[in-house]
């Protein structure tokens, strides 16, 4: 009961000078709001990065052509990968779940009087959807038989459906891709924009053999990349090592020689980006935390002024039996109460600010939806830190008040 009585007395004391109390907590409000905003935006960015890499596929490893030196000039992207490499990776690597060759092409798509240039027209293998962790919303996907026969079939994204078919069902319809008729056998599940604002639904998928033979008119078995899915995220390193060794053997690359391929582990890239965003969040939060120190100094100054103004009151309390520790507790509670009020107000303002900023960023990044992240542990830590600021900066004024001599305090004018 004595503790709650102390709180009531502290509230009444603060209520007597509302304006001064409001200005006192302003530094804490700004500090907590700034830290909350920075942490929320940082976690939002980290979650967005992780989400984009998850959208890329299931434990994806990307194999691309390497670089070669010709005449002393380093050339990158020289064709060095084939669909046979993709098949070997899928069949011979124990830690690999599936693999798909990737053959890029440019194509103009026409249906009736409507036409469209898709952002991506890609030749892929039968396991492409498994690697990319993608599904068809309607229809199906091409099979090994259709790949072997270079069948004129395709699977399209939602943007292509909207541009060519509007509201009609595209399954079974025939579209022209580069003046070649293709039958639509499936529509992909909508994915939306990626991290840089590119529309992932503006895509046409075809068997890579069809792209090579019918669109590019080539008999040369090369692919632009190979997408590989490891069996689990815990086996990414083993899968990467297996792929690297297998391709070195297949391409007859001696130890120490320059490889004509590169193996990229997307998990490592995601982790690096996570470390970068985390470091930036910590740095910005530390800078914002400086205002908490400024707010704490403000609380100390005001509490020292309050001790001077209430010296006679302190003397009267001591005269009627108040002990030094009661006076200490009284002023310490007032200080903590001030900082906690500032912490709560700052937390609310920080959450509102982070939501507004992430919405503004989403509107400026061409469809990329930044998640609004409010960390409950961060909110609890913010309130506890505000209370710690109140205790740290309020202890000296409270101790000074508790050490006043009752006789001198009663004589104080």
Strand content: 15-25%
Number of strands: 14
The Rg value, from CA coordinates, equals 33 Å
Q: Report the structural category.
A: alpha+beta
The quaternary organization reads as single chain
Our count of domains comes out at 2
Q: Roughly what is the average pLDDT, rounded to an integer?
A: 80
Low-confidence stretches: none
Largest sheet: 12 strands, mixed
SSE string: HHEEEHEEEEHEHEHEEEHEHEHHHHH
Per the principal axes of the C-alpha atoms, what is the gross shape?
A: elongated
Helix content: 55-70%
Question: Quick recap of the structure?
Answer:
The chain is α+β, with helices and mostly antiparallel strands and 413 residues long. The chain has helices spanning 2-15, 18-56, 83-92, 128-132, 144-148, 158-164, 208-215, 236-250, 266-309, 311-319, 324-364, 376-402, 406-411, and strands at residues 60-65, 67-70, 73-76, 96-105, 109-111, 114-116, 120-124, 136-139, 153-156, 174-177, 180-188, 203-207, 225-230, 261-265. It is built from 13 helices and 14 strands.
């Amino acid at each position: 009961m004595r503790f709650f009585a102390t709180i009531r007395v502290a509230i009444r004391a603060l209520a007597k000078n509302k304006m001064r109390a409001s200005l006192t907590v302003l530094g804490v409000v700004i500090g907590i709001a700034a830290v909350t905003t920075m942490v929320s935006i940082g976690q939002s960015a980290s979650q967005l990065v992780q989400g984009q890499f998850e959208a890329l596929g299931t434990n994806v490893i990307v194999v691309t052509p390497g670089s070669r030196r010709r005449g002393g000039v380093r050339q990158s992207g020289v064709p060095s990968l084939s669909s046979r490499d993709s098949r070997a990776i899928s069949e011979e690597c124990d830690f690999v779940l599936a693999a798909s060759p990737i053959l890029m092409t440019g194509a103009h798509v026409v249906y009736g009087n409507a036409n469209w240039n898709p952002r991506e027209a890609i030749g892929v293998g039968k396991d492409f959807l498994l690697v990319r962790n993608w599904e068809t919303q309607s229809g199906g996907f091409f099979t090994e038989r259709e790949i072997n026969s270079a069948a004129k079939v395709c699977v399209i994204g939602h943007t292509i459906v909207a541009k060519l078919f509007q509201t009609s069902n595209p399954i079974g319809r025939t579209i022209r891709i580069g003046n070649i008729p293709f039958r639509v056998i499936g529509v992909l599940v909508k994915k939306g924009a990626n991290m840089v604002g590119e529309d992932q639904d503006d895509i046409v998928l075809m068997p890579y053999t069809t792209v090579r033979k019918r669109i590019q008119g080539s008999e040369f078995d090369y692919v632009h990349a190979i997408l590989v899915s490891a069996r689990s995220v815990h086996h990414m390193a083993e899968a990467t090592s297996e792929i690297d060794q297998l391709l070195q053997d297949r391409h007859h690359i001696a130890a120490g020689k320059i490889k004509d391929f590169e193996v990229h582990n997307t998990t490592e890239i995601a982790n690096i980006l996570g470390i970068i965003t985390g470091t930036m969040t910590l740095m910005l939060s530390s800078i914002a935390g400086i205002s908490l120190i400024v707010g704490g100094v403000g609380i100390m100054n005001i509490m020292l002024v309050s001790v001077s103004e209430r010296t006679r009151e302190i003397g009267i309390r001591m005269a009627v039996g108040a002990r030094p520790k009661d006076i200490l507790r009284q002023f310490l509670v007032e200080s903590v109460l001030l900082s906690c009020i500032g912490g709560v107000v700052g937390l609310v303002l920080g959450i509102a600010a982070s939501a507004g900023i992430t919405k503004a960023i989403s509107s400026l990044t061409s469809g990329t939806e930044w998640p609004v992240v409010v960390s409950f542990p961060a909110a609890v830590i913010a309130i506890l830190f505000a209370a710690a600021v109140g205790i740290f900066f309020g202890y000296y004024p409270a101790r000074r008040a508790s050490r006043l001599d009752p006789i001198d305090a009663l004589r104080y004018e």
